[in-house]
Amino acid sequence: MTTSVNRFVLDPTNERRASTMERVGRPTSLKGLTVGLLDISKARGDVFIDRLEERLSEMGADVKRYKKPTFTKPAPVDLRHEISVNCQVVIEALAD
Amino acid sequence: MNRPTLPDGLVIVVKRECATCVMVVPVIEELINGPLPITVYVQDDPTFPESLARSHDADLSVSWHYDIETVPTVIRVKDGVEVDRTVGWVRDEWLKITGLSSLGVELPDFRPGCGSLSVDPDLVDELRVRFGVSALAARRVEVADAEDEFEAMFDRGWTDGLPVVPPTEQRVMRMLTGTTRQPTDVVAIVPPDLVEITVEKVAINAVMAGCKPEYLPWVIAALEAVCNDTFNIHGVLATTMPVGPVIVCNGPGTRAIGMNSGMNVFGQGNRANLTIGRAVQLIIRNVGGGRPGEVDRATHGNPGKLSFCFAEDELGTPWTTLSESRGISRTADAVTVFPGEGPRCVVDQLARDPESLTNTFAACLRTLHNPKSVLAFDAIVVMGPEHARVYADAGWDRDRVLSEIHARLQIPGSELIRGANGIAEGVPTHLSGMTLPKFRPGGLLLVHAGGGAGLFSAIIGGWANGDIGSQPVTREVRA
Questions:
Q1: Ordered domains of chain B (ranges, CATH)
Q2: What number is the average pLDDT over the span A62-83?
Q3: Bond before B192 cis per omega within 30 degrees
């Protein structure tokens, strides 16, 4: 009996199954679409995003800028929601 | 399993292996003729006592549920409720519980009983599972007969790269005896997956880490201390920098559980130091879902990410302790968590006066992360006893030591700006005219620890500090 009990262990994980979500279809053109640019507040990320904004605007996209309060923490839920309702496309920039 | 009901009258639990039980058989025979109904339970040999009707407590259910620690035990039951009990053979006690005026006149007045089978160390873990299993909610994972149980832990991705103790129900139930908290209590919400963790899941991972039950409250306190927005374990995990949670333990409990605060304090060889820190990191991995190469993006990491946990040398310190300086009573147990890299050594074997020694600390601390980096990172100074004595002899207290170090780390902006000293790294050039401190106020923590020989100390460098990153957190340890 002891042996069989010892062949069972208790699951140390969170026992959650990863949820899967369908990706939005890739747009054929950015023209007329709203593109969110999320700055994670890491040093010089703004340099990269400034340039992206220029290029995207040239392509006819409507660009909106967003910024996380700090790069060390996840984006606040309100910010994520705001981006999701305002934008069709989002680019999150990581820089160092 | 339900608690069995005891019949009214006298219930007597015995085992043949116990000489006192054998001795009292004639007494029980006397009781059969008395006014109270007698029920005898025998733990080991179902034929004992041959002269009496008895029930075999084969699965020890009666003994377990009625907390029999010694045999013989006599329980008086009235209307299904225990009203009195005595253990061993004490004639006066037996007279009182039976209401008789004479019993066992041939016997000595007193003889101690023997240990009950239900508290036999070889059986107790199994019994705890048998009778208490419904308390545990975790999924049972079967390990195949042909599978090596240690390899099975690796195969399932549950380890930190070292073998773990397989968390069987017996081991987890035993671990849970280390806390008064219920297995279902939620301890924290663990990043990065933001999952609620129960005491039970903490215990499972503590078993795997190699903890003893008495370490469990420390693991729980450390977990509570890191899993919040102030300490920000999410960022500490995810960062490319080589940091992990450093756990500094204070209080008399550190000595009770045998933590090391002395020789080789950061090193190998002490179970409590190594397994408490390890349990916290296993929880971040297994429950939080934080794994190297996934959310953990460390460029180099450091060996302390397996476990970096130690106690302050409180008996030897000339100062207040770290937790005292952070508002906790010296008689209380506490953990302070700090996002730290590996320790580095500060060598000064010649300083005999505090000014000279402070100059060394300042010079060494100046180089932390980059000699031109200021205000961004905190640090712990772990003062070795031989260095601390220099300060103690001069009458410098904790605040004086720290303020003198701070005073020596006020740096002209011209030395720190980008490009200065041929180093591109630095602060923006408009700060050139300012004087900037290496550390923010409160950004240096002071701990007394290490072996008694060696004019050395250690520095543990931190990570992005303040609201943007991580703040040290101190939390009391509760049973």
A1: 9-120 (3.40.30.10), 152-476 (no CATH)
A2: 90
A3: yes
